[in-house]
Specification:
Elements: H1 9-39, H2 47-62, H3 65-72, H4 77-83, H5 85-109
């Protein structure tokens, strides 16, 4: 596994942006579907709170760029580009779990 010669920061950053920003759409759709399912009719009651949680979730989603860009600068770039969807999947699953806990509290305990 050798790094591709002549790959600069610009190409790596563009590749990371392309992958993670496409993934952000699916990430947000998963969390939106979970929110609608858990809260059902009460979605609009907690709209401001859900928006705040969405901002926090998207902030943490952005931290995926750190290992992506770092690993793409290594000799494992080719392998990483094929397997980084696993990091997306694990992060989305973890965010869904955290969202489930928060939404469970909103739906059944009335947190606000």
């Amino acid at each position: 596994m050798t790094a591709e010669p002549g790959i600069g920061f610009r190409e790596i950053a563009t590749d990371a942006l392309r992958f993670w920003e496409r993934g952000r759409i699916a990430f947000n759709l998963v969390l939106l579907a979970l929110s609608i399912y858990m809260l059902r009719g009460d979605v609009f009651e907690y709209l401001f709170l859900l928006f705040a949680y969405a901002l926090i979730a998207n902030f943490f989603y952005t931290t995926a760029y750190i290992p992506d860009v770092f690993i793409q600068h290594s000799d494992f770039r080719v392998l990483w580009r094929r397997l980084r969807w696993l990091l997306w999947l694990a992060g989305t699953a973890f965010a869904s779990f955290i969202a489930f806990l928060v939404l469970f509290g909103l739906a059944f305990n009335g947190w606000s």
